[in-house]
């Protein structure tokens, strides 16, 4: 059973080409991903008693509802925004693009797509880690009822999860803001290359959503294609900051939450309300909530159990019978 958008995400990922070595247009290395723990904040050693508590929590659940965030993908080498000391907010003064800015400004769209074009070969090559695979296994064994991810990296899809909603969309899809036409992101990469045969840029660090840092001077001559169907503006099929998740998708997630008997939050600070509201709804329904995350979260006061640990270190330890 695949959720809305999952089929097109899977087709887009199957069409991806992982480019080895140096990207021909920039100096960023794509042959070897960064150290997988480079963007993971420090955490204390696992407490066996706490591990047993999570084991008991998962085993007692019959229809587990899981919410994941950026903290599950940092162990695959993808940076996040909020992790203490290593997140984008802590390392730089850069901030993600705002939805309204992308809509109203040609320069903003040009800057976004130039940065995304350079970062795409590396971003699209990231692979799921043991935490993604553990959740896929729980689904296969009938323990996981539904998985909602805030991430746009498609790593849960790559891991094989099917009972899944990508709450904020996926960077592996592109849509037209005028006619709604969709295409795989890898296909757009080919259009970029055809329109910019001599353009090149030196990247200055990788950002969480698949782009890199470029100067304004570097992007001034970058050409952005329009929709082949109607000539409209193209946008990644993701929910930018300042935008809202569709009512249809929210209702779809609520339906599966109402069918569940417990909730696990994995790798999320739950600062974004679009996910936090599901924890509030679970608490209102008196569903037990467990949280696995390094550092405090917005939902800690709602939790039956909180573990300050890496998802990839803890989730594979859970044994299902």
UniProtKB/TrEMBL annotation:
Q: Where is the Deacetylase sirtuin-type domain?
A: 44-321
Residue numbers annotated as active site:
168
Q: Tell me which positions the record assigns to the signal sequence.
A: none
User: How, per the record, is the cofactor bound?
Assistant: Binds 1 zinc ion per subunit.
Name the source's superkingdom.
Eukaryota
Q: What does this protein do?
A: NAD-dependent protein deacylase. Catalyzes the NAD-dependent hydrolysis of acyl groups from lysine residues.
Q: Know the name of this protein?
A: NAD-dependent protein deacylase
Q: What organism does the record attribute this protein to? A: Eublepharis macularius
